[in-house]
Write a structure and sequence with these properties.
The chain contains ten helices and 13 strands. By secondary structure, the chain is of the alpha/beta class. It folds into two domains: about 150 residues, 2-Layer Sandwich (Nucleotidyltransferase, domain 5); about 150 residues, ATPase, nucleotide binding domain (Nucleotidyltransferase, domain 5), CATH 3.30.420.40. Strands 3-2-1-4-8 form a five-stranded mixed β-sheet. Strands 11-10-9-12-13 form a five-stranded mixed β-sheet, with helices on both faces. The longest helix has 26 residues. About 40% of the residues are buried. The C terminus is likely disordered. Bound molecules: zinc ion. Zinc ion binds next to loops.
C-alpha cells in the first residue's frame, strides 16, 4: 500500500491506495509557510494511515508520495516558488521523511495528476498524451515514453507562464501570461465574483451578465490556446483537461470547442488538425494529484531497486565505485 499526499493551495488531500483501489482518504486546510505546510501534511498523513485497518505489528504503508505546486526537484525533494503556500524554498522530502519515518518521494502536483491520468487512460499506439490542469492557475504536463517530462528544474509544462498578450500583469512578474487569461484566478478577477455563492459564470453570461461573458470568453479562448501550444510545441496528440474548473462541465467543453473551431476557420493549418476533437474533460471528485503522488512513490522505489541490481552485477568491476555515489534515475519529474 502507498500513501499519497497532495498539498494544494487551499486543501491538503491524503489517500491510501492498495493497487489502484483507494482504501482511505481525508483532507484538511493547507498550512501556510514552510513549517505549517509540513505540519498539516504530516498530521493528515498520520491520521489517514491510522484509519486503515491492519494486523498489529505489520507495516501498512511502505511508500509515501507527496506532491506540491511550484518548481519541484524530485531528486532532492526540494520545492521552490510555491507561491500559494507561502513557500520560497523548502526541503519537503526530508522534512516529511523525518515527520513520518517513511521514505518520501516528492513530485510536482500537475505532473502527479498527469501520472494518474496516464495510468488510467487506455494506451493507443501512436498517441502522446498531455494533461492540462485548469484550477487556481493553469499548468500542463507532457507524458513521454519514459514518463512525465520534467525539463529544466521541473519547469516543463508550465505553459501558464507563456506570455500571449500585452496585459494583464501575472503573479509571476510577467505580463499577459496565459494563466492571467485562463484560470480560476483570471475567471474571478474578470467577473468580479468568486466562491460557491457566485454560481456558474456560463449561466450568468446567458442571463446577460456582460462581465461573466467576458470572463468565460477569456477562459475558453485561453484554454484553446493552451491546447494549441501542447499540440504544436509539445507534440501532444490528445489533451486531457482536469482540475477544479472541469466542474463547469458541458458549457466549458462547448466553449473550448467553439474557440478552437473559430481559430481553425481562419487557417487551413489548424483546421487540418481538428483540435476540437483532440481534447476531453476529466471531471473527477477523486484527487488525481494525490493518487498520482502515491503512484510516483512506487515508481521511484522501483527505479532505485534497478540501480541496486546493476550495482551487484558490477561487483567485481574495480571501476564500478560505490553504488551510493551514482545518480539515481527518476522516471518522474
Ligand atoms: Zn505568469
Amino acid at each position: 500500500m502507498r500513501l499519497g499526499i497532495d498539498i494544494g493551495g487551499t486543501k491538503t488531500h491524503a489517500v491510501v491506495v492498495d493497487g489502484d483501489v483507494v482504501v482511505a482518504s481525508d483532507e484538511a486546510p493547507s498550512g501556510r509557510g514552510p513549517e505549517a505546510v509540513v505540519a498539516v501534511a504530516a498530521d493528515l498523513g498520520r491520521r489517514v494511515l491510522a484509519s486503515v485497518p491492519h494486523p498489529a505489528g505489520s507495516p501498512v504503508v511502505e511508500r509515501v508520495g507527496v506532491c506540491v505546486p511550484g518548481l519541484v526537484d524530485p531528486s532532492t525533494g526540494i520545492v521552490r516558488q510555491a507561491v500559494n503556500l507561502g513557500v520560497e524554498e523548502l526541503e519537503l522530502g526530508g522534512a516529511m521523511q523525518r515527520a513520518l519515518g517513511l521514505d518520501v518521494t516528492v513530485t510536482g502536483d500537475v505532473k502527479a495528476a498527469a501520472l494518474w491520468v496516464h495510468r488510467t487512460t487506455p494506451a493507443i499506439p501512436g498517441t502522446r498524451l498531455a494533461y492540462l490542469n485548469l484550477g487556481t492557475g493553469l499548468a500542463a504536463a507532457l507524458i513521454g515514453p519514459d514518463g512525465v517530462v520534467g525539463g529544466l528544474r521541473g519547469a516543463a509544462g508550465e505553459i501558464g507562464h507563456i506570455p500571449v498578450a500585452d496585459s494583464p500583469p501575472c503573479r509571476c512578474g510577467q505580463v499577459g501570461c496565459l494563466e492571467a487569461l485562463a484560470s480560476g484566478t483570471a475567471l474571478h478577477r474578470i467577473w468580479g465574483r468568486s466562491g460557491p455563492e457566485a454560481g456558474c459564470p456560463f449561466a450568468a453570461a446567458l442571463d446577460g451578465d456582460a462581465l461573466a461573458q467576458e470572463a468565460v470568453d477569456s477562459l475558453c479562448a485561453g484554454t484553446a490556446r493552451a491546447i494549441q501550444i501542447l499540440v504544436l510545441a509539445g507534440g501532444a496528440t490528445d489533451v486531457v483537461i482536469g482540475g477544479g474548473l472541469t466542474a463547469l462541465g458541458d458549457p466549458l467543453r462547448d466553449g473550448i470547442s467553439g474557440a478552437l473551431q473559430r481559430s481553425a476557420a481562419a487557417t487551413p493549418l489548424l483546421s487540418s488538425l481538428r483540435l476540437h476533437e483532440r481534447f476531453t474533460l476529466r471531471e473527477s471528485t477523486v484527487p488525481l494529484a494525490a493518487l498520482g503522488a502515491a503512484l510516483a512513490a512506487g515508481q521511484a522505489v522501483d527505479q532505485r531497486r534497478f540501480v541496486d541490481i546493476r550495482a551487484s552485477v558490477d561487483h567485481d568491476d574495480p571501476m564500478a565505485g560505490d553504488p551510493d555515489d551514482r545518480a539515481v534515475p527518476h522516471q518522474v519529474g
